[in-house]
Specification:
The protein is an alpha/beta fold. It folds into two domains: about 210 residues, Rossmann fold, CATH 3.40.50; about 90 residues, UDP-galactose 4-epimerase, domain 1 (Alpha-Beta Complex). Helix content is about 45%, strand content about 15%. It has twelve helices and twelve strands. The strands form three sheets. Strands 3-2-1-4-5-6-10 form a seven-stranded parallel β-sheet, with helices on both faces. A three-stranded mixed β-sheet has the order 7-9-11. Helix 1 crosses helix 7, helix 6 packs across helix 10 and helix 8 crosses helix 10. The longest helix has 22 residues. The structure holds nicotinamide-adenine-dinucleotide and thymidine-5'-diphosphate.
């Protein structure tokens, strides 16, 4: 029986991955490892939490001895590593939190894997990473697997460092790994600090929607389920020691995304003039201008293609948030209120 760890499995993307693994692999033991920070919630995996092939362990990956104990009880064959501090704005406020989890936590995992996986070749360390490690593009061009790393925020620097450590451990100690770098995800269960769920929750609450700068920055969006299908396929059939870029060829300026959501909200809820909530605010320091991904050809060769159009995905996502007010209420803690004040008070007055 294969034992599969998902670190960060109670977060946004991790929860979608855990749900698939628990349901698709009844013969495997799925171990969710998550510290349950402000961004991690058992509510995200409530439907599979008590499944017979699933174990949840509240564990901080920055704590090496705690990880060793978990390993002794549930030695993994595969590790999907998603646990991370993931929000760029927070990384600008508190960079060290990103070093502890994204760098030290990742190396803790690699250290224990190197010691315990010696001589094993049928194991896998799957590093879930971001396109932000490649830096910022101008008006044209795409990131490819050979684009040099050029991280420019504390978040992307910490993810780049972790990616480098994964490759270094693969090269030096022979750990079989895959790294995939993906663009901006959206969908159900995304914590309401990120652009799309922030916009949706503010639409519901009729609060100003903060758009940084002139709203012209471009992101490459993918529906979370399309990302998770790519991860699962690559784990099964991807080449070990390789890097894959995952994207849906869906680049949009922020203002277009926000305005579209406003109109969609008006249509679905029979409201008027939601665009009047859009408020241009002071820009993010060091704000990367544009991300755009040329997805790996090998991924398409394996039969993957994004299934959900941006329009369908945004509708699904908006409907999900509209029908889960209790989830929004449950995940916003006092910590979030404090963060929100720090991040937006000056900007929104
Ligand atoms: P998220 O913030 O929603 O979830 C992160 C999870 O990690 C949370 O459940 C949190 O509790 C957990 N966590 C944080 N610190 C931890 C620690 N020290 N020990 C154990 N668990 C800890 O993030 P997400 O958006 O789901 O992203 C998941 C992964 O995918 C991250 O590695 C991120 O860098 C990467 N990624 C995200 C995106 C995106 O658009 N969201 C895009 C590409 C890659
Ligand atoms: P975000 O969701 O934080 O993801 P990332 O910074 O990792 O790309 O932001 C997406 C884009 O939206 C980014 O260009 C910053 C912008 N943005 C706003 O304009 N207003 C906001 O309140 C937030 C959170 C983001």
């Amino acid at each position: 029986m294969l034992t599969i760890w998902v670190t960060g499995g109670a977060g946004f993307i991790g929860s979608h991955l855990v749900r698939h693994l628990v349901r698709q692999k009844p013969d495997c033991r799925i171990i969710t490892i998550d510290a349950l920070t402000y961004a991690g919630h058992l509510a995200n995996i409530a439907d599979v939490l008590h499944a017979s092939n699933h174990v949840f362990l509240k564990t901080n990956i920055a704590d090496a001895s705690a990880l060793r104990e978990v390993w002794d009880s549930y030695p993994p064959d595969w590790i999907f590593h998603l646990a991370a501090e993931s929000h760029v704005d927070r990384s600008i406020l508190s960079p060290l939190d990103f070093v502890y989890t994204n760098v030290v936590g990742s190396v803790n995992l690699l250290e224990i894997a190197r010691q315990r996986w010696k001589g094993h070749s049928d194991v896998l360390f799957y590093q879930v990473s971001t396109d932000e490690v490649y830096g910022s593009l101008g008006e044209t061009g795409f990131f490819t697997e050979s684009t040099p790393y050029n991280p420019r925020s504390p978040y992307s620097a910490s993810k780049a460092a972790a990616d480098h450590f994964v490759r270094a451990y693969g090269h030096t100690y022979g750990i079989p790994y895959i790294i995939s770098n993906c663009g901006n995800n959206y969908g159900p269960y995304q914590f309401p600090e990120k652009l799309i769920p922030l916009t949706i929750t503010h639409l519901i609450e009729r609060k100003p929607i903060p758009v940084y700068g002139e709203g012209k920055n471009v992101r490459d969006w993918i529906y979370v389920e399309d990302h998770v299908r790519a991860i699962l396929l690559l784990a099964e059939r991807g080449k070990r020691g390789h890097t894959y870029l995952i994207g849906a060829r869906n680049t949009r300026p922020n203002i277009e995304v926000v305005a579209y959501l406003c109109d969609l909200y008006d249509e679905i809820t029979n409201t008027q003039n939601s665009r009047s909530l859009i408020t241009y605010v002071k820009d993010r320091p060091g704000h990367d201008f544009r991300y755009a991904i040329e997805p790996s050809s090998h991924l398409f060769a394996l039969g993957w293609a994004p299934k959900v159009s941006f329009e369908e995905g945004l509708r699904e996502t908006l409907l999900w948030y509209l029908s889960h007010p209790e989830w929004i209420e449950a995940v916003r803690s006092e910590e979030y209120t404090q963060y929100y004040i720090q991040q937006y008070k000056e900007r929104l007055g």
